[in-house]
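Example complex used in Figure S2.
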Amino acid sequence: MSSRAFDKGLARCFSCGKLCQLSVQQHQASCCPRCDSPVSFRQSASLSYSWALTLAALALLVPANMLPILTVVSFGQGDPDTIMSGVIKLWEAELQAIAAVVFIASVAVPVAKLVVMLLLMLVVQLKLPLSKEQCTLLYRFIHFIGRWSMLDLFMISILVTVVHMGNIANVESGPAALAFGAVVVLTMLAADYFDPRLLWDLEHE
Amino acid sequence: MNDPSIASATARPQRKFSAVWLLPLVAVALSGWLMYKNFIEHGLVVNVSFANGSGITVGKTPVMYQGIDVGQVKALQLDEDLKGVTATLELSRQIEPLIREKTEFWLVQPQISLSGISGLDTLVEGNYISFKPGEGEPREHFTALYEPPPLASNVPGLRLRLQADALGSLAVGAPVLYQQIAVGEIEGYQLLEEGVEIIARIDPLHQHLVNSSSRFWRQSGFKVNAGLQGVQIDAGSVASILAGGVTFETPDKNRPAAEQDAEYRLYESREKAQGSRRVMVQFQNPDGLEEGASVRLRGQEIGRVESWQFSVNNPAEGADVTLEIKAPYHRFLNADTQFWLVKPEVSASGVSGLDALIGGPYVSVKLSAEGGEVPERYTALSEPPQARVQAPGLRIELRSDELGSVSVGSKVYYRKIPVGQVETVELSAHGVSVGVFIHERYAHLVHRESMFWNASGINVSGGLGGINIQAESLATIVAGGIAFHTPQVAKPQAAWEGLRYKLHPTYESTLVDVSREISLRFSTGSSITKGTEIKYQGIKVGEVYAVELDEDMNGVTVSARLSPSAKGLARQGSQFWLVKPQLGLAGTRNLETLVTGTYITVRPGSGKARNSFVALDKPPSLEKPKSGLNLVLTAPQRGSVKEGVPVLYRDVPVGEVFAYELSADATHTLIHINIKPRYANLVRKGSKFWNSSGVNVDVGLFKGANIRSKSIESLLEGGIAFATPEHAAHETPVAQGSRFSLHTKVDDRWLKWSPKIPLGTAR
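Predicted assembly (968 residues):
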């Protein structure tokens, strides 16, 4: 069995990289002797932050998908669309490729991220006997893919600013855009706060 | 275990609770707020069933209330039973209290009638769904009305209920006009047990214009009035032409303003609104009379023909025409009212009803005093009644044997100026009685002595001297007329009302009354007829008016009248004879009588006035001329000498034979000649007269033939020539009545005489 820094009571300062000796028994917060930044063996309160952010993202996912995200008015006609109705419209308009991209980026990925995050956190929390390698793989995946969910919002923000031609064509963002943006940001933060080392710590217990 | 090279971290107390847990709360709150806000904005969703979906567009057709967009059609789908469509409306939450059980929805579509702005806005903005708030429990499903309910609008204003028999061309939104200004509109209508109730709304601004005296009628498009005066087009506003409209007027402005939901009657026309009366008139012959033809009183329209139909029982009996007489004229209808048909009539007696030529026949009416019972049915006159002129003036009566071309309305002329007209023409026992009206300002022209004659037509009198055409005026030629003149008398006496006169057939005959009547006895009546003229010196002085056989059957008695100026011709000693054309070798005379007819001429006497004469069979011998030199020639035979034969001097006529007679002892003929004064000097004592008539043929064995003749004229007619010897030039001229001998042959020596004798001055 390999030894961990944790086992040696060593921790590296996140700010200045100084290696310090932490007492395992100590239930107090420790500070770097050099830069006075908080030092801990693992991302401090990683799980609770992740939980909080994930739950917040989960809460916002509801309006993000239920409320209209975009209103495209062309020649005076146009209805507000939610994400899903937009995808359906695109699909019905024979734009399956774009529909697929939008669906993956706007629906599948955020939902998948949250599901994975919940799964990972539950694994850590409940010490579920799952493959640590696969869990880490999932974590890497959501960490990597997370930023691409902002694709939708970029597109919306560009459309809103560019397509502004009165009655001929006009694009307005809906309240869901805000919620959706928040979901993306919160899941990214949640993924950031999640310390994958917690997964591996389970092996030592 | 502790590596000394690795510094220990400094300890710090740990916080129990992390602020990060606020984040989910914030997120939940935010999410909840977003959802709530969206829910609020999403609005109330109701389903409305329509009969069909035409005119409804998803996402476009708005729901309007009080002119404000309060919702939209979100979806439109067929009903499950496929018999209609259901529109899903998303309405503003604000109007949620209005959407109840009894709320009514309907689709407002553009009216293709330009009936007003409410119709026009849908043309531009498209259809919209409107609703009328109701009460009751909230509901989510409604059934739309087919058309807007009668009282749809909540626009403030005075609402009036107009009762009508039929809706006519009125559409919802049609204007209500006052003085042709739209002051309201038709909001709706509904069927009643009998007729239709139309709800009109008057704008609050104009509400005061309506009171209990107001009268409403339909504004019917436009009315074209064409007549002799021109074409008059009476039109309401363009909208009212297209969509119809209601017009009202308020005669009495002092009454209190009308109350909400007041009831009025909607009349078909202004005339009816003003109150009118229908009367039934039976026309024997409704020649060309049409519905809508006007009823006129003295040329002014006071009503219309509403309808007509042939008499129910028997079409041959004519037609029953229903007339509508406008207010206030209908008050004057009573049993004395007379109706007749006016149609164009062009006849010799005048042109009447010329306006009917263009406007078509119309009914004319004569009204008398106000009040009285109105009979159920009138019978129209076949011709206009004889109208009395309603003006001050003199009315007299003319009597005549026959009417001529005078008719009612013919003018009466004085010096060719119209001063009155014929009012009545009536048949009386003695002929025709013509009632004449003379305008007051001309009444003084009529005296008791005035003479009236029929001035109609043209009077043409012609002769060799030319043709004389006489007419009073062009109008009288066409329409007939009566003229009069007033002779100057010593004591003029003004005419009085009802005075009777004789109507003479011509101007000339008016003179008869003051002329002399004479009777002439002719041995034969040939070529003497009624109308044969009596002339003196070539001028007409009278006329024969009767030719009758004598009592003894041996001749004819000719009655004639002499014009006043020629009275003096009828005296004792006057000689009358008939002038006939004469054609003869001796001369062609009176050729003009071939054209003008024979005439009677007169040579006046100098005695007392007489009325009865015996006419000569032939012209009397010429009277001894008063001027010139009268001589008597004695001849054994008359030869070819007769009256009018010229007396020639050097083949120049210087006089003529005016008479011949036998001498008292019958031994020779006395020939009376007259030498014109100018040539009187040529006759001297010793002058020789010979008969130059005929041809003088002298035949001898040795001298050959000598044929001598005077002019062709003398060859034909004969003639008397004379010559005066040179020595006699010194003699004094001969005295009147000197006697000479008429030689039968000329002596050649006489022909060589050529005395110098100065002629008298030519006169």
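Chain B touches chain A at residues 1-3, 6-14, 18, 20-21, 23-24, 26-28, 30-31, 34-35, 37-38, 59-60 (CB under 8 Å). Confidence is low (pLDDT under 50) at residues 113-119 of chain B.
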